[in-house]
Specification:
Length: 481
């Protein structure tokens, strides 16, 4: 007998919503109070809440770790003290009486552990990957406890869950990947009973642990991924990403003030934008949602009534180009082999790049040469040293990758002609195209990226009237960092 795959709650018409709130949506007491009202509006749908660290906290934790590793223990502890004061003040504003005392004790315990870790880093003068994962994970541990207490203070039956007890990953620190079977079982065992009792589970995003309990992280921006992991495990009807903008935009409105909000797009289009550096979603977010056919919504916690952007399996927008993004600080790497390019050589090259945690965005090969684009140049000297004697490695910095995304965009030759005609005077380079038909990209000098995006946005979007299914926003969203 053939067992049919389980349908998602979305397909069955049932409600269970995973709600992820980003750093700016939990940055202060006003933001958390908005979060509470948004969660209240979803109580009929069995919400699960996933939160990022408070805005800027992860960067400050990184600064403290770097200072400690550099022998500046006093500076590191001063940063930790400032973080404690900020969280303590929030606790006083959001909770009262006994709940505040309980929350205060929990925060003191967390900061005691944080101080101890900073001392350890200062003693060994090294912030290694496992220590860095422990360090950066404090932000989500703290914010999730604050939000849980605030929800309970407001009368919502919330229940805090340590995400490290249920999201299980491999030991690749800084960019860990879920061990899916164990993670799904843990989430169903731990979160499921709370939902059946009518409680609202609250957990931190971004953080996880190995099967042995060693803390890991899913990579910067990984709270989106956490929400999708939870949604897939629980067969959610939808995943909501709450941020401070009205949705995914046609480009960075700091470059193009007339940029518009895209009301609906496909999983594949959004995945292309994420891959090419747009600040839309964590690049891994959409895979679990796509696999389980769970719609993803990008919404604005400052404007909860807005429709946002809906990401679904199929979306016919009627536009040849859906969005334009630019990934800055890209390096174009040329690898020359005197003995030609073989499958063994490619495996060796990828192994070296993987060992140095340097992901490859695009690759092309020819006789005796491999061309790569990478988003980080920090590891390239070490990579070149590892490959010395096998191949010659050189690279160019100060490049930007401009990418246009749309359904079947590569199957429209006249579209490519219009694109490259618009930037023909910029000495652009078409690096190499991936397997997808949904994107066209090219390299341009860093100094010309803004002009190229503006020209292309005028070409494809300026003639469109802002009809009822479009919106606008003044915050950057589709621009790579």
């Amino acid at each position: 007998m053939i067992e049919l795959p389980q349908r998602s709650r979305f397909e069955r018409g049932e409600d269970l919503v995973v709600m992820k709130f980003g750093g700016t949506s939990v940055e202060d007491s006003d933001a958390i109070r908005r979060l509470i009202e948004i969660v209240r509006s979803r109580l009929h749908a069995q919400p699960v809440v996933v939160v990022s660290a408070l805005a800027r906290i992860t960067d400050q934790l990184q600064e403290a770790g770097n200072a400690a590793a550099g022998g500046q223990l006093g500076s590191a502890l001063e940063t930790v003290r400032a973080l404690y004061v900020r969280h303590e003040q929030l606790a006083a504003e959001l909770a009262s009486n006994e709940p505040q005392v309980k929350l205060g004790r929990e925060l003191q315990a967390e900061f005691g552990n944080l101080e101890s870790l900073v001392h350890d880093v200062a003693m060994c003068r090294q912030l290694n990957p496992p220590a860095q994962d422990r360090l950066l994970g404090f932000g989500e541990c703290l914010s999730s406890k604050l939000v849980n207490a605030a929800l309970r203070e407001a009368g919502v039956e919330a229940a805090h869950i340590d995400a490290r007890s249920c999201i299980v990953t491999d030991p690749r620190h800084g960019q860990a990947a879920p061990v899916w079977k164990v993670t799904n079982e843990r989430l169903q065992q731990i979160v499921g009973p709370l939902l059946r009792m009518g409680q609202v589970p609250v957990m931190g995003g971004f953080i996880a642990a190995t099967p042995e309990g060693v803390p890991t992280t899913l990579g910067r921006g990984g709270s989106d991924f956490s929400a999708a992991i939870v949604g897939a495990a629980l067969q959610a009807s939808r995943v909501e990403i709450w941020t401070d903008v009205d949705g995914i935009m046609t480009t960075d409105p700091k470059l193009c003030p007339d940029a518009k909000v895209i009301r609906k797009m496909s999983f594949e289009e959004a995945a292309e934008l994420a891959h090419f550096g747009a600040k839309v979603l964590h690049p891994s977010t959409l895979a679990p949602a796509m696999r389980e056919n769970i719609p993803v919504y990008v919404l604005n916690s400052w404007n909860p009534a807005g429709p946002g952007t809906e990401i679904v399996a199929q979306a016919d927008t009627g536009s040849m180009v859906s969005a334009i993004t630019a990934k800055r600080e890209v390096a174009a790497v040329e690898i020359e082999s005197p003995h030609g390019v073989s499958s063994e050589l490619l495996r060796a090259i990828y192994a070296v790049f993987d060992r140095h945690s340097c992901p490859v965005d695009i690759m092309a090969t020819s006789i005796g040469r491999v061309s790569l684009l990478v988003g980080s140049t920090a590891a390239l000297p070490r990579i070149a040293a590892d490959l010395e004697g096998v191949v010659n490695v050189r690279w160019e910095n100060h490049k930007s990758l401009v990418c246009l995304v749309g359904e079947d965009i590569r199957r429209q030759p006249e579209l490519a002609s219009r694109i490259f005609a618009a930037v023909s005077d910029m000495d652009v380079r078409v690096p190499c195209q991936g397997a997808s038909d949904r994107s066209i990209s090219f390299l341009v000098e860093e100094s010309r990226v803004e002009e190229s995006v503006q020209r292309l946005h005028r070409l494809f979007f300026s003639r469109q009237e802002p009809a009822a299914d479009w919106g606008g926003n003044s915050s950057a969203y589709c621009q790579a960092g």
